[in-house]
C-alpha cells in the first residue's frame, strides 16, 4: 500500500525554483490497476520517480508498505527498488548485447538470489516469450522487447509495477497486447499496476484514473476499463490514440 | 551480490564487447611483453658475462702488461713489458698462496693485427694461437676432452704438437677424429706469413660461446715451440715477451695479499716505481661487468615500466569513456536494484580482469618473443633468461595498474544519479 501526503518536488534551475510537484496527496491500495494521467509537464514522471524510489521528494511524506521512505538511505532505496518495485519504460531500457533471460534475471542478481535462471524463465513464460529466452534485444520486435521488460519488472514479485508510457513506442495492435499482459498480471497475480501516461486510450484501460496538472492532482475517479464496456470494439479503439511515431520492426 | 556474481557480471560485460576489451588490453599486453623480453635479454646478457668471467676459472689472478696511455692513445713500445722470466720469478718466489701458475702468449687474439690460421686439407679457419705450459688446464679449469694436453716433454722438445679448441676441431675435422692428424698453422699479417705442420694430440672440452668471443675458437701449442718457431719477441736483454700470466690461488680471500706481494716482486724485477703491468682478480673483472650490466638493467626496467604506465593510462581512458557510454546501462542496473557498491565493484573488477588477462597474454607473448629471438638468433648468440621474479612482478604491476586505473571511473559510475542515467541518450 502506498500513501503520499503533501508531496512537493522543487527543482532549482539556475536561480529559478520550479515546482514539478505541488502538494500531491495519493493513496494506492494493493492490487489496484490505475493510471496517472496528465499532459507533458504535469509532473507525472516526477511523481513516478518518487513512487519508484528513484528520486526523493523535497517535502511531504511517502509511506510504502508502512516504511517512511524519506528516512531511508541510498542503499535501502536500492533494496526497496529491487524487492518492492518494478519499472517498465517507454523505451524498454533493456541492456544491449544481453539475452532475454539474463535481462530478466538481472534484478535477482542484485538480490543475491539462487536459481535465477529458473525464475527468469518462469517470468518470460508468463509474458509469452518462452521461445525467445536466448534472443538479444536487437533480435526482438518492439512488443517482444517490452514484454522482456515486463518480465524483468515482475520477476521479483514486486508490490507495484510502475509503467511509464509503456505503449508509447508501440503500434496500436502491439499496444493492446502489451496492455493485456499488464491486465493479466494484475488480475491473476494481484500485482498493483500503475500506468503513467498522457494517452486517454491507455488510461481508459485501467480501473482508476488519477489526473495530474501543474503538479497537482486535479481529478481522481474510478473507471470501467474499456475491455469491459459493451459494444466497443477494442481492435478499432486505440487506432487514433496511440502515437504512430515509432513503428517497431 | 557474491564475488562470483560480480566476476560473472564483469566477464559477461567484457565478453559482450570483445573488440573494446582487446583494445583495452593491448597496452598492457605490450607493456608486460616488453618487460619480460627486455628483462630476459638483460638478465641473459648478465648471466652470459657472469658465466664467461666465472668460466675463466675460480680463484684466478691475471697479470697483463700495463699499457702506457696518453689521452687515451696507447704509446708505441708499451705493452711489451711482461716476460716469461717474470712468470719464472713468481714461481721461484714460492708464494704460499699460489696453487699453480701458467704463462701464455697469443697470436690472432681479439684486436691483434697478426692473424693465425688453422689449415687442414684445404679447410681454413682463422683462430687464436695460444702458446702455454702443461699447467694451463689446471689453472684455467679447462681440460682436454679427447686425447691429451701438452706435457713437459713437449715443451723441452719444442714439439710441433697442437691441442684444438672445440670450434676448430669441428670446423676442420667435422666427424673425423683429429687425433694424430697433421695440420698446418700459419701466422702472418697481410701477404707475409709463415706456417708449420703440427700434429694434433688432443681436443679441449667445450666452454661455450659468450658475448663476441668463443673460448672454443683456439689452438694450443707448447710455449717454447711458439717462441722458437714462430714468434714471441725477445727484447734486448733476451727476455721473452708474453701476454699474460695466469695464477691460480689456493684461497680466493688471499687475492688482495697476492696482488700486493706479486706486484712488489714484479716492480722490483722491472726496476720501476709504479706498476707497468696490471694484476686483476676474477672478482675485479666480474665487478666491473656487473656494474655495467646493472646500469643497463635499470635503463631497461625503466623503459619497461614506462610502457606499463602508458598501458595503465590507456585503460583508465577507455574505462572513463566506457562509463559515459554505458550511463544508461548503469541507470537500468540501478533502477532494478543495484547498489552503489555493486556498480563500483562491477567496473573495478572489469578493469582488474582486463589488466590481469592482458598481463597473462603479455607474459605469453613476452616468453614467446624470447623463445623466437633465441631460436632465430636475433641479437647474435645472446642468451635470454626469463626470470620468474620479473614475470610475477610485471603481472602484479599490471593488476595494480588495473586497480588504480579502474578506481576513478568506477567511482564516477557508482555516483551516477539513476534518473539522469536513465534519461541519458
Pick out its properties.
heterodimer; A: 249 residues; alpha/beta; Rossmann fold; six-stranded mixed sheet; four-stranded antiparallel sheet; 7 helices; 10 strands; 31% helix; B: 425 residues; alpha+beta; 2 domains; two-stranded antiparallel ribbon; 13 helices; 15 strands; 53% helix; 20% strand; elongated
Describe this structure in words.
The complex is a heterodimer of chains A (249) and B (425). By secondary structure, chain A is α/β, with parallel strands linked by helices. Chain A has a single domain (29-56, 77-240), classed as P-loop containing nucleotide triphosphate hydrolases (Rossmann fold, 3-Layer(aba) Sandwich). In chain A, 31% of the residues lie in helices and 27% in strands. Chain A is built from 7 helices and 10 strands. In chain A, the strands form 2 sheets. In chain A, strands 6-7-8-3-9-10 form a 6-stranded mixed sheet, with helices on both faces. Chain A has a 4-stranded antiparallel sheet with strand order 2-1-4-5, with helices on one face. In chain A, strand 4 and strand 5 form a beta hairpin. In chain A, helix 3 (100-111) runs parallel beside helix 5 (142-154), helix 4 crosses helix 5 and helix 5 (142-154) packs parallel to helix 6. The termini of chain A are far apart. Residues 235-249 of chain A have low confidence and may be disordered. In chain B, strands 5-6-13-8-10-9 form a 6-stranded mixed barrel. Chain B folds into 2 domains: 3-53 and 288-423, no CATH class; 82-275, no CATH class. The mean pLDDT of chain B is 84. At the A-B interface, helix 2 and helix 3 of A face helix 1, helix 10, helix 11 and helix 13 of B.
Amino acid at each position: 500500500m502506498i500513501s503520499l501526503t503533501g508531496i512537493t518536488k522543487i527543482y532549482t534551475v539556475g536561480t529559478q525554483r520550479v515546482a514539478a510537484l505541488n502538494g500531491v496527496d495519493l493513496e494506492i491500495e494493493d492490487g489496484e490497476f490505475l493510471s496517472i494521467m496528465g499532459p507533458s509537464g504535469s509532473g507525472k514522471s516526477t511523481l513516478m520517480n518518487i513512487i519508484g524510489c528513484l528520486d526523493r521528494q523535497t517535502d511531504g511524506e511517502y509511506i510504502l508498505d508502512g516504511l517512511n521512505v524519506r528516512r531511508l538511505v541510498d542503499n535501502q532505496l536500492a533494496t526497496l527498488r529491487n524487492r518492492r518495485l518494478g519499472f517498465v519504460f517507454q523505451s524498454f531500457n533493456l541492456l544491449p548485447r544481453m539475452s532475454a533471460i539474463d535481462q530478466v534475471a538481472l534484478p535477482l542478481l542484485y538480490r543475491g538470489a539462487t536459481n535465477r535462471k529458473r525464475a527468469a524463465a518462469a517470468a518470460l513464460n508468463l509474458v509469452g516469450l518462452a521461445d525467445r529466452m536466448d534472443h538479444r534485444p536487437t533480435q526482438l520486435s518492439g512488443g517482444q522487447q517490452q514484454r522482456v521488460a515486463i518480465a524483468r519488472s515482475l520477476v521479483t514479485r514486486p508490490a507495484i509495477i510502475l509503467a511509464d508510457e509503456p505503449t508509447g513506442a508501440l503500434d496500436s495492435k502491439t499496444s493492446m497486447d502489451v496492455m493485456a499482459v499488464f491486465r493479466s498480471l494484475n488480475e491473476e497475480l494481484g500485482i498493483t499496476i500503475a500506468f503513467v501516461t498522457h494517452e486517454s486510450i491507455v488510461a481508459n484501460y485501467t480501473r482508476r484514473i488519477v489526473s495530474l496538472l501543474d503538479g497537482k492532482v486535479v481529478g481522481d475517479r474510478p473507471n470501467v476499463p474499456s475491455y469491459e464496456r459493451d459494444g466497443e470494439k477494442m481492435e478499432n479503439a486505440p487506432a487514433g490514440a496511440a502515437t504512430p511515431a515509432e513503428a517497431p520492426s | 551480490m557474491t564475488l562470483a556474481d560480480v566476476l560473472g557480471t564483469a566477464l559477461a560485460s567484457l565478453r559482450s564487447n570483445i573488440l573494446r576489451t582487446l583494445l583495452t588490453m593491448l597496452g598492457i599486453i605490450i607493456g608486460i611483453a616488453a618487460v619480460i623480453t627486455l628483462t630476459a635479454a638483460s638478465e641473459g646478457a648478465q648471466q652470459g658475462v657472469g658465466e664467461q668471467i666465472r668460466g675463466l676459472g675460480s680463484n684466478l689472478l691475471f697479470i697483463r702488461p700495463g699499457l702506457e696511455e696518453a689521452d687515451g692513445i696507447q704509446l708505441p713500445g708499451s705493452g711489451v713489458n711482461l716476460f716469461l722470466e717474470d712468470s719464472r720469478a713468481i714461481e721461484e718466489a714460492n708464494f704460499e698462496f699460489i696453487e699453480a701458475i701458467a704463462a701464455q702468449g697469443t697470436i690472432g687474439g681479439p684486436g691483434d693485427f697478426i692473424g693465425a690460421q688453422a689449415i687442414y686439407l684445404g679447410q681454413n679457419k682463422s683462430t687464436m694461437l695460444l702458446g702455454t705450459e702443461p699447467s694451463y688446464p689446471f689453472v684455467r679449469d679447462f681440460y682436454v676432452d679427447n686425447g691429451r694436453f701438452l706435457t713437459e716433454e713437449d715443451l723441452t722438445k719444442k714439439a710441433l704438437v697442437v691441442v684444438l679448441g672445440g670450434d676448430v676441431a669441428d670446423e676442420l675435422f667435422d666427424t673425423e677424429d683429429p687425433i694424430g692428424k697433421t695440420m698446418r698453422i700459419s701466422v702472418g699479417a697481410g701477404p707475409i706469413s709463415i706456417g708449420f705442420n703440427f700434429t694434433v694430440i688432443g681436443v679441449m672440452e667445450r666452454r661455450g660461446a659468450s658475448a663476441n668471443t668463443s673460448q672454443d675458437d683456439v689452438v694450443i701449442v707448447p710455449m717454447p715451440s711458439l717462441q722458437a718457431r714462430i714468434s714471441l719477441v725477445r727484447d734486448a736483454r733476451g727476455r721473452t715477451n708474453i701476454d699474460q700470466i695466469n695464477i691460480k690461488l689456493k684461497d680466493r680471500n688471499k687475492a688482495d695479499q697476492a696482488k700486493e706481494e706479486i706486484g712488489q716482486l714484479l716492480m722490483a724485477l722491472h726496476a720501476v716505481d709504479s706498476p707497468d703491468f696490471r694484476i686483476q682478480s676474477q672478482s675485479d673483472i666480474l665487478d666491473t661487468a656487473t656494474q655495467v650490466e646493472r646500469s643497463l638493467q635499470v635503463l631497461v626496467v625503466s623503459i619497461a615500466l614506462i610502457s606499463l604506465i602508458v598501458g595503465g593510462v590507456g585503460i583508465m581512458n577507455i574505462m572513463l569513456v566506457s562509463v559515459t557510454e554505458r550511463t544508461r546501462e548503469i541507470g537500468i542496473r540501478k533502477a532494478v536494484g543495484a547498489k552503489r557498491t555493486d556498480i563500483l565493484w562491477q567496473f573495478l573488477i572489469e578493469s582488474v580482469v582486463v589488466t590481469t588477462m592482458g598481463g597473462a597474454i603479455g607474459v605469453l607473448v613476452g616468453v614467446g618473443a624470447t623463445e623466437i629471438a633465441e631460436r632465430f638468433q636475433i641479437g647474435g648468440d645472446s642468451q635470454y633468461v626469463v626470470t620468474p621474479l620479473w614475470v610475477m612482478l610485471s603481472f602484479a604491476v599490471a593488476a595494480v595498474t588495473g586497480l588504480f586505473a579502474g578506481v576513478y571511473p568506477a567511482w564516477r559510475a557508482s555516483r551516477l544519479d539513476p534518473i539522469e542515467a536513465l534519461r541519458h541518450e
